[in-house]
Amino acid sequence: MGRRPNSADPAISPPPSPQREIRRARAELSFDDQSLLVPLFGQFDANLVQVENRLGVFISARGDKVLIEGPEDSVARARDVLQAMYGRLARGEELDSGAIESLIAMSNEPTLEGIISGESDGPPVMIRTRRKTIVPRSAGQIPYMRQLARDELIFALGPAGTGKTYLAVAQAVSQLITGSVQRLILSRPAVEAGEKIGFLPGDMKEKVDPYLRPLYDALYDCMPPEQVERHLISGVIEVAPIAFMRGRTLADAFVILDEAQNTTREQMKMFLTRFGQNSRMVVCGDPKQVDIPGGDTMSGLADAVGRLEGLEGIAVSRFTSADVVRHPIVGRIVEAYEGKPE
C-alpha cells in the first residue's frame, strides 16, 4: 500500500504560488499646440521610441492624439513623461535624449511635473541664466537646487555626471546676473591623478587650466562666450587652484570648490575659513575618487562633512548612480564600479 503524500515531505515540492497578474491599461493624450508635435515626437518618432523602450509600453500617434498601451504602472509613467516633455517645449526649453532620459528617471516621483513647474509646495525649482533655464534632471537634483538657492555652505557629494558642479556654476551665474553677488570664484586642488603637470609646457595658469576645464565648460554653457571672457579679464570671474585662496577673505562672492575629495584637512580648513560677508560656498566632490598622493592622508572633504554636517546654514546633498544625467550607460558603469572592490 502506497504512502500518503505529506506536504512536509522534502521529496515533494509544494505547488507553485500563482504569479501576480499584470494589469494592462490604455491612456490617450491630446496636445493643443500642434506646432510642438514634431519636436515632441522627434525625428522618425525617435522620442516616442525612447519612451517605449525604456518603459515597456506601445505608443501610437495620430494627429494631435497619442495612445499609450501596456502595463498599468508603465502607462501611467509614460503619460507623465510625455506631458512633462510637452511642458518643456511649451516653456521654450530644450528637449533632447538626455532630457527625456532624465524625465523617465524622475517619472516615479509623484509630483514630477509639479516639481518642475512650481505647482508643488514652494517656489519653482529652476535656475535662470543668460543662455538657458535649468530644471532638475534627476530626483537628487531637486533638493540640491533648493539648497543652492537657500543655504550658505553646501557640500555636494557623489559620482561624476550627477550635475553637482554644473548646477553650482549655474546658480552662481544666476546670482551674478541678479547682483546678489559681485564675483564668482571657481577653484579646485591641483592634485595629479597619475599625471605630472610639472612637465607640461607653460606658466602655472597654463599648467592648471586643463584641470579646471569642467568649470570653464559650465560657464560657457550658462553665459555668452564674450561675456565670460570679459569677466575673466576684469576679475569678476576668477578660476584658480586652491593654493591661490590662502590669506584671502572672499566677500560678496559665490565660491565653488570642485574635486574637493583631493584636498587635505589643512587645505579644506583654509578654504572654508575664507568665507566672507554676503558670500556663498559650494564644495563638490566624490568621496570614492580620492587621488591624494601617498594614500594615507585623510580627505579634507570627508573630514569636513563629518565635522560640519548638521550645523545651521550648512547643507549636504548626496547623489548616487541613479542621479547620473549623462548617457544611461554611465550610470550602469558607476554602479558596476561601486558594487565591486578595487
What labels describe this entry?
342 residues, alpha/beta, Ribosomal Protein S8, Chain: A, domain 1, Rossmann fold, 3-stranded antiparallel sheet, 13 helices, 11 strands, elongated, P-loop_NTPase, ATP binding, ATP-binding
How is this structure best described in words?
GO terms for molecular function: ATP binding. It holds the Pfam family PhoH. By secondary structure, the protein is of the alpha/beta class. The protein has 2 domains: 24-117, 2-Layer Sandwich (Ribosomal Protein S8, Chain: A, domain 1), CATH 3.30.1370.10; 127-338, P-loop containing nucleotide triphosphate hydrolases (Rossmann fold). The protein is 37% helix and 16% strand. It has 13 helices and 11 strands. The chain has helices spanning 37-41, 46-55, 72-90, 97-106, 112-117, 141-150, 164-178, 204-208, 213-222, 225-234, 265-272, 300-308, 328-338, and strands at 24-30, 58-62, 65-71, 127-128, 133-134, 153-157, 183-188, 237-241, 253-257, 280-285, 314-318. The strands form 3 sheets. The protein has a 6-stranded parallel sheet, sandwiched between helices. It has a 3-stranded antiparallel sheet with strand order 1-3-2, covered by helices on one side. Strand 4 (127-128) and strand 5 (133-134) form a beta hairpin. The longest helix is centred in the N-terminal third of the chain and has 19 residues, at 72-90. The radius of gyration is 25 Å and the shape is elongated.
